[in-house]
Amino acid sequence: MTERKGFLQIYNTLSGKKEKFEPLHENFVGMYVCGPTLYSEPHMGNMRTFINFDLIYRYLLHLNYEVKYVRNITDAGHITNSAGDEVDSIGKAARMEQMQPLEIVYKYNLNFIELQRIYNLLMPSIEPTATAHIQEQIEIIEQIISNGYAYLINGSVYFDTKKYIQDFDYGILSGRKVDELENETRVLNAQEEKRFFADFALWKKAGADDMQIWRSPWGNGNPGWHIECTAMSTKYLGKHFDIHGGGMDLKFPHHEDEIAQSCSSLGCNPAKYWMHANMLNVNGQKMSKSLGNFFLPMEIIAGETALFKKAYSADVIRFFMMQAHYRSTLDFTEDALNAAEKGYERLMESLSLLENVSCNDSSSLEVKKLVDSFYSAMNDDFNAPILIANLFEAVKQINLLTEGKITCTILDKEELKKLSKTSSHFLASSLHNSSIILREIGP
Fold first, then answer.
1. 74 and 56 co-located in one domain
2. Residue 217, preceding peptide bond in cis (omega within 30° of 0)
3. Which of 175, 204, 351, 437 is 20 to 30 A off residue 284, Cα-Cα?
4. How do residues 105-134 score in pLDDT, each as one tens digit?
C-alpha cells in the first residue's frame, strides 16, 4: 500500500465531531448510501446528496482503498412522509399515471441511470432493490420479534420502541429523545394499532388499495420503509461496516430506526461512521415539492425551469454544488449559478494553458505546496470549497508560468497537470473522465 499523505478526518454524525478515519478492515471500505425511491424523478436536492457521495467515493478510491459502495433502490414499501404518515408512494404514483408499479419503477430507474451518466456519477459496486430482498427483510423482522423487540397486531408487525429504550439508546444518532417526540406527535391512522406512539411499522398488512403485495409469516402485506436498508446493508456489507450515508432529512426517523433495527436484531450499530449531506435551498427557502420551488436535474440543463432564465451545463452545476461543503446548506440562486459558471470557465481556460508552458532546468514553482494543499483540503472531511480555493491558487501559478514570471521543470509541469486533472475530475462532470485520473497524483 502506498503511503497516504496525512490522514483523513470524517465528521461522524454519531459523535457530533470529526474523527480520524480508520476502516474496520485494512485497505477496505464498506459504504452504504440510501438511494432514490422510484416513484418520480429525483429533484436537484436529491441529486446534491448523490453528487456529494460521488465525491467521497472518488476520493476513497484515490487513496487506494478497495471500496464496496452499496446504494439501494427503493421500489417497494411504505415511506414515512414529512407529516409522519406512512404512504405507499409507488402505488400512489402508479394509480396517478395509470401504470403498474413495475412500470413506474422501470420508467424512473431509466431516468436515474441517465442522470447518473449526465452528471458523471460513478456507478456503485452494488445497487440492490427492495423488491429483490423481501425474504431478507422478513428474516430480519423475524429476528427482531424473536429477540422481543417487535409485536404482531392485525396482520402488521410494529417495532416495540418502549421495550427497545429499556436496553438501548433511541435517539443516539439524531439526539431526539422519545419523551420530546411525544409532544410533537399528532394522531396518525395507525396510532390505534400501535401500542406506543413512537413504534414504527416493520411489516404492513395489505390494504384494499395496495398494488404491491408479498406473502409473509404474518399474512400478505409489504415491508415498512426502514427495514429494507437494514436487510440489504447487512447482506452486502455485514452487520457492522464503515460508512452509512444519506441526506440530512433521513437522519430521523429513517437512520435512527435503522440503528434500532440493527441493534435489536444483530446487537450492534450497523455503521462506524454516519455521514449526512445537507439540504438545497432555493432563494433562501428549502427546496420542496410542497412549496413548488423544486426543479429537476434535466430541466435545469435544458433551460426549462421558470426559476432561471437560461440553461446550465452539468459541469457547471456539479462545480457549483462543490462550492459548499457537503454538511452545509447551499442556496440555489441565479446569481450564484452565474458566478459559478464564470469561475468554472476561468478555471478550465487557465488549466488548458498549462499544455503550452515552456520548461526549464530549474523551477521556482512550489508544486509540493500545491499538492499538499490538495490533500489538506480533502482530508479535512472532504472539504471541496477549500480544494476549489486551492485550485485557483494553482491557476495563479499557471498564469505566472505562461507570462514567464516563474519557471518550472518538466517533472513539476507533469505533476501540476496531474493535480489539475485529478481536482477537475472530482469537481466537474465530464472533464477528464478517465478513472485512471483518480490515482494519477498517487497518495
1. yes
2. no
3. 175
4. 999 999 999 999 999 999 999 999 999 999
